[in-house]
Write a structure and sequence with these properties.
Mean pLDDT: 88
Distance between the termini: 10 Å
Shape: elongated
Bound molecules: uracil
Number of helices: 6
Low-confidence stretches: 253-259
Helix content: 10-25%
Structural class: alpha+beta
């Protein structure tokens, strides 16, 4: 099969801009395909053959990159915030190829956030089927009982369904009577999931930090700084979301031999 992309996606994949900005550029008549202006971002183009130009300059796909950001609290995971709040893009190197966040962290959450211009890899990481483990450290209100921690691990009911089994353990200062520090390893990534899980057992998250995504660890990356993956890290990440990963559930349908 020939690779085809909607035009907005083609521009974002090429590291030019976000899909939102691409749609605006297309609507403004700034994008040409094979010499003709196109204004419909939904129309599919053959990415392997079409010559796509933005403002008269040919757009080519750039090498695939993944970056790690040590996100501080107080930054929203979006390219432009309608309320004018600080965004994670302020922490990425200026003028670099366009990178999209892989999933998101809440404004009040710190820790590891990935960015990439490889939308297939991003989709593979965020797909529920990837079951890629993500490790969080949460400081929770109150002294949580062992039964409550076991309930978190077994799965708690949320309005969008029960959570999958998770690894949950106490970490840190055991003498604090007012809070409990937990490490949680989740294999799903629903919206505000950790906060909602902790609320489901009658407590509240006071601070939340993501330490690890699959094989990638924050390590000693300073708060507020970003760096590209090493080749070894990128290979490990690709292997971790590969459909051929031994422990990964097999898809039921046969999608042919092209992948
Ligand atoms: N779970 C949350 O509740 N918030 C995050 O930012 C990430 C996971």
């Amino acid at each position: 099969a020939r690779p085809t992309r909607t035009r907005d996606r083609l521009l974002s994949r090429a590291g030019v801009c976000s899909r939102t900005a691409a749609r605006q550029a297309i609507a403004a008549g700034r994008v040409q395909v094979d010499g003709r202006i196109v204004r419909d971002p939904e129309v599919w183009v053959d990415a392997s053959r079409a010559v796509v130009c933005l403002d008269g300059v040919e757009v080519r796909e750039r090498p695939k990159e993944v970056w790690l950001l040590h996100k501080p609290t107080g930054y929203v995971t979006t390219a432009s915030d309608e309320r004018g709040r600080a965004t994670v893009y302020e922490l990425l190197p200026a003028g670099h190829t366009w990178l999209a966040p892989v999933g998101r962290l809440d404004r009040d959450t710190s820790g590891l956030l990935l960015f990439t211009n490889d939308s297939d890899l991003a989709d593979a990481i965020t797909a529920p089927a990837s079951k890629l483990p993500k490790t969080y450290v949460a400081r929770c209100r109150g002294r949580l009982r062992d039964e409550a921690i076991a309930a978190l691990a077994a799965g708690v009911p949320l309005r969008d369904g029960p959570t999958l089994p998770a690894q949950v353990r106490r970490v840190g200062d055991a003498d604090d009577d007012h809070t409990t520090m937990l490490e949680l390893v989740l294999v799903e990534g629903r919206n505000r999931q950790v906060r909602r899980m902790i609320e489901a057992i009658g407590s509240e998250v006071l601070t939340l930090h993501r330490r690890r995504i699959g094989p990638l660890e924050l390590g000693d990356l300073p708060l507020g700084e970003a760096r590209p993956t090493t080749p070894g890290e990128l290979a490990a990440l690709r292997a971790a979301v590969s459909p051929d990963r031994p422990d990964r559930p097999r898809p039921r349908s046969n999608r042919g031999s092209a992948r």
